[in-house]
Amino acid sequence: MSSETSTDPGLQPWQFFVLAGLACATVATFMVRGQGVVAVVLLSVLMAATALVGIAVLRALGPLVSPRDDRTSMIGHRTRAALEREKMLALRSIKELEFDRAMGKLSDADWQEMSGRLRARAGRLMRQLDAGAGYREQIERDLATRLAHTPGPNDAASVRGADAVGPPTHVVSPAACANCSTVNDTDARFCKSCGQKL
After folding, report:
1. How far is the C-alpha of 13 from the C-alpha of 35, rounded, in Å?
2. pLDDT for residue 93 is more than 90
């Protein structure tokens, strides 16, 4: 089943099984209409079960005979999930090494050697993951969008109000706290010093 046939509004294979099951159930109903309700219900259930088995077989055999491309994200000869798992294990090993060193179970020389190897491996995996994904362009687009919406220091009218008259007595930037004048991040909702709502 190619991608052209899977996107058109025509009959899908699973729909064929559903329609065939309904047609067979209808024919069986007409054939045994004089034999009572139990026979009609049992034959209808049998046809529905046959259609469900056909759909299950189609789903099981479909990926084996389908020429569709594998959608697993590959980086080099390995999948992205395998690289992410290995990176997580390397970072966890670094954390455990630091804990062992702090507890006195590991000498400084052993810690430096093992930590250096693990950090190099984690860095190599991170570079491989970053190079294999088109994240740089997405991050740059998101950053440009966020910077375009950030008010500048000359936007005092937007902070004071458009109808303010006279020289400003105290212009508070959008990132500064009105209570303690601590400069916060531009997207912060609460002051990092006093906790006042911005």
Report:
1. 33
2. yes
Answer for the pair 132, 76: CB distance below 8 angstroms, yes or no: yes
With contact defined as beta carbons under 8 Å apart, do 48 and 25 qualify? Answer: yes
Cα separation, 186 vs 143, in Å, equals: 13
Q: How far apart are CA 97 and CA 36, in angstroms?
A: 76
Do residue 83 and residue 129 come from a single domain?
yes
Query: In angstroms, how far is CA 125 from the centroid of its own chain?
Result: 20
What are the tens digits of pLDDT across the range 47-58?
788 888 888 888
Residue 68 to residue 126: CA distance in whole angstroms = 30
Q: What distance separates the 2 farthest-apart alpha carbons in the chain?
A: 97
User: Average pLDDT for residues 100-110, to the nearest whole number?
Assistant: 89
Q: Measuring CA to CA, which residue among 87, 165, 175, 157 is closest to residue 124? A: 87
Helix, strand, coil fractions of the chain, as percent rounded to 5: 60, 5, 35
Residues 178 and 191 sit within 8 Å (Cβ to Cβ): no
Total domains in the fold of the chain: 2
Range of the domain at 122: 76-133
Out of 48-52, 80-84, 111-115, 151-155, which region has the weakest mean confidence (pLDDT)? 151-155
- Is there a single domain that holds both residue 56 and residue 85? no
